Amino acid sequence: MISKNVVKELVDQWLEGKEYFLVDIEISPDDRIVVEIDHADGVWIEDCVELSRYIEDRLSRDEEDYELEVGSAGLGQPFKVP
User: Fold this and answer.
1) What tens digit of pLDDT does each residue of 16-29 get?
2) 43, 47, 26: which is closest to 35 by C-alpha?
3) Which of 51, 48, 43, 47 is nearest to 74 (CA)?
4) Closest Cα partner for 55 from 68, 71, 72, 38?
């Protein structure tokens, strides 16, 4: 199973110098990784794609197969950060 700390470190590296912030990371037992980010002005799909590629370039599918989803929390989701 992929470590949540490894994914968090990668996300933190990508976030450095950007106005985005991490909302949540969830990793299921079958290695489905869900990363939620946010921004005061909303989240752009291009930035989600960029973060997804950043993470994929640094994780090896040869070592462990995983599914990755990067996005923002939906309107129907509870608040996770102050």
Assistant:
1) 999 999 999 999 99
2) 26
3) 43
4) 68
Cβ–Cβ under 8 Å, residues 22 and 47: no
- β-pairing, 67-71 vs 32-38, is parallel
Distance between CA 1 and CA 57 in Å, rounded? 18
Q: pTM of this prediction?
A: 0.88
Say whether pLDDT at 81 is over 90. no
CA gap 8, 48 in Å, rounded: 15
Instruction: Calculate the dihedral angle through the C-alpha atoms of 7, 9, 14, 16, rounding to the nearest 10 degrees.
Output: 150
Question: Coil, strand or helix: which one is 34?
Answer: strand
The rounded Cα 10 to chain-centroid distance in angstroms is 9
